[in-house]
Amino acid sequence: MSSIAKPPAKKAASKGGKAAQAWWTAQLQKWEHLWKGQTAEQAAAAATANTMLPVLIEVFAAFSKLDGSVEEDEVESSLGYLRYDYPEAIYSDMRRIYFEALQQPQDLAQRAKELAKSLTSEQKVLLGVQLYLLISRSQQNQRQMVEFYLFMTNLGIAAQAIDIVYQLNAGDKPPEEGFATRGGQPLETLRIASTQPTDVLLRSLSAECSVVAFRFQNMVLLKNTGGVDILVRSRKQPPGDFSRLYPGERVVLGDVTIDFNDLISYFNAKKTLTGTQIYLTLTEDGDAEIAPQRGRGTHLRLSFGLGVTVEAIRSTQATVNGTLLSAGTVIEASIEDKIIAHGEVEIALRDLRLRAQEFGGQFRLEGSRNTYLVSNKPELLDEGDILLSEDTDGEILLRIECNYAQKTGVLEVLRASRPIYVGQVPIRDRFTLSDGDTITLGEGQFLRCHFTDRIIEEERNTIRQHPKCALIGHPDRNRLCFLQGNDNLIR
């Protein structure tokens, strides 16, 4: 190993801090053009991280030279975590800038105090997570961890730092061995494995294959907690390693593929404790009709969350995992299971979940709670609030207060990037809701308030193209049928 940098003589901290800030601002402007090749979705997801990237590298450079010199192979190991998160041009430039940062005057205590004033609490947590992932790969880990906690204390998030380190390290331990500090858990967690206890059960995974996903705002991290390699971005991720997942990307666990949207759906289901629901009618000729509401001939009710609850309303000859779906039967199934009808027709629960998401969600109101936030941004909601469909445009944040005795409610518009209506009335502040009122959120998207039944239902009217063997329109516009044809269809 070769020593590649030595710390320069210390200068006044305040002057160094101002110089460093100006230098990093220039680097940000230099990188801007390199992001032009990203899709709009990827660029939006990475916006906060990109803004924080110069700060992250600046601080990590200061950690790297705590012992007076930096070893080149150590740098490659630590920065390698970021190698596949950014375009090659940015990573190469970032590596060069890292070495330049080593020559900048650094005072971690002073820099932490400066950042404590300029960063939001969310940015501080984001910095803490990514900084920990970098220094945890270092051979100087013990010394750097002491400085990490001191840096986080000066940053003003000492309790959150303890939680971050615990969460990222406890992902491979059974939930019953866990604990939580008074600071709570800043990261949402999602366990995926082939056996219980787990959040998402995928029985086809091998016993040695398991992962834990972490979410903070729009950052999604994946940790391999199993004993075999997994594939992320077509690259092997060894046991114990982390990677970051972006929109449109996939992870391969043995024979199972999970994409970014799958993980987001599971995170949202776990956080809000709500999901989507559809009703299935099996016809004598082998077709299956789906509808957002129960009809006279409905056979099955399917509720989608972290798993799938299949409830037989009427007796059928269909089975799930070999269990006959007779009236009253309730089965907790995995998303990879299938309904077998007429002994040979297979209906994949994964496909049905996609169809259910197109209809929108149905949210049951708890008798012990009368106030709910409604948004399309999960980071704005608490557990049990109402999360709108993921592809809702712009930002919406509403508050609905329910009066179950009077079967009424009060709607308050907190944030909205588009007009909100009740009936034909535009709502800019507060509005009293009656049972059965419809809140229009945008073109083809509505919330129906059924206070009598304690249900708020999201309805969506969509036009989209379905691939082969998907669905065909039914005379009833709310119903769809499976088709065995080859043509693309439009609903």
Describe the structure.
The model is unreliable at 1-17, 31-37, 39-49, 175-179 and 463-491 (pLDDT under 50). This protein is 30% helix and 29% strand. By secondary structure, the protein is an alpha+beta fold. Strands 16-13-12-10-11-32-31 form a 7-stranded antiparallel β-sheet, with helices on one face. A 6-stranded antiparallel β-sheet has the order 19-29-28-27-24-25, with no helix packed on it. The chain is built from 10 helices and 33 strands. β5 (230-232) and β6 form a beta hairpin. The relative contact order is 0.07. α1 (13-31) runs antiparallel to α2 (40-64) and α2 packs across α6.
List the helices and strands and how they pair.
Layout: H1 13-31, H2 40-64, H3 72-83, H4 88-101, H5 108-118, H6 121-135, H7 141-155, H8 158-170, E1 188-193, E2 200-201, E3 211-216, E4 219-224, E5 230-232, E6 235-237, E7 242-245, E8 250-253, E9 256-259, H9 260-272, E10 276-282, E11 288-291, E12 300-304, E13 308-312, E14 319-320, E15 323-324, E16 330-333, E17 338-341, E18 345-348, H10 349-359, E19 362-364, E20 371-375, E21 386-387, E22 396-403, E23 408-416, E24 420-422, E25 425-427, E26 430-434, E27 438-442, E28 445-450, E29 455-460, E30 465-466, E31 471-473, E32 480-482, E33 489-490
Parallel strand pairs: 1-2, 20-21
Antiparallel strand pairs: 1-3, 3-4, 4-7, 5-6, 5-8, 8-9, 10-11, 10-12, 11-32, 12-13, 13-16, 14-15, 14-17, 17-18, 19-29, 20-22, 22-23, 23-26, 24-25, 24-27, 27-28, 28-29, 30-33, 31-32
